[in-house]
Design brief:
Two copies of one chain form a homodimer.
Chain A lengths: L3 E3 L3 E4 L14 E6 L16 E7 L10 E2 L10 E2 L12 E12 L2 E5 L8 E7 L19
Antiparallel strand pairs in A: 2-3, 2-9, 3-8, 4-7, 4-9, 5-6, 7-8
Chain lengths: 145, 145
């Protein structure tokens, strides 16, 4: 299996057109299912407060393997591409945990999605407490910079 | 953008050959980077205790849109495919938060990965505390069944 083809199941709608700076955590986005996916696919989703959104960085053009400065911040030492969340990664896949504000028909309103307007969404999964870390989390100090 | 092509960046190695029953949470898996991806892509990863693994359900053949019983359990009411984590979803993308045990060269040893032997891995991201839910999580009672 050398190539895998996927298709957008939804698109992001928000006010962020360009990848300049950081999209604030409180930013509101809409996620609209495409017409060919049944609206019932969202049934029961508002019993969850949080969702994980898997999306495609459609404006990313570079691919880095090996190491890079996280967030292009040269104050942070270079680390491997799988030790940070840069969009310039093989496959250009993004993943963000968001807060669900409401569901209306084929549209979710969420906060905390750091994806640009027009971003293709590949999958949406509900956040379940028992699948989150059950132990203390270890992370390097630079993630707080 | 109607189709997106991605490629495996690594493969899962473990003792689970078939999708029968539930892979136990304490199961150990290895994740081996493919040769064309620099080993340095893992540099710094062992400063993190937990990772998110995005993978492809390569043995899933069905696609459900609309509603289904979570985990095929008819005691649970049907909900939309995006309200549970069934592999029979559009794009067949899986996502599991795992505990990193060790990194050796191009190989990670992890626990908690519910993916079969030979599963293609599409992406690996470090778990960062501040991107986890900061508020109380709401979830329906059936997730505990």
């Amino acid at each position: 299996m050398s190539e895998i083809t996927v298709k957008p199941i939804a698109f992001v709608r928000n006010e962020f057109q360009e990848a300049k700076g950081i999209i604030p955590r409180e930013a509101i986005s809409k996620i609209e299912l495409i017409d060919s996916i049944s609206i019932a696919s969202f049934d029961g989703i508002d019993d969850f407060s949080h969702l994980e959104i898997i999306f495609y960085f459609h404006k990313a053009s570079k691919v880095i393997t090996g190491t890079a400065h996280p967030r292009n911040n040269t104050n942070i030492p270079k680390v491997g591409i799988y030790s940070h969340r840069s969009r310039n990664r093989p496959n250009h896949i993004g993943l963000t945990l968001v807060k669900l504000i409401k569901r209306e028909g084929n549209t979710l309103t969420v906060s905390g999605l750091d994806a640009l307007d027009g971003t293709p969404v590949l999958d949406i999964k509900p956040v379940v407490t028992r699948f989150l870390p059950q132990e203390k989390i270890k992370e390097p100090d630079w993630v707080k910079l």
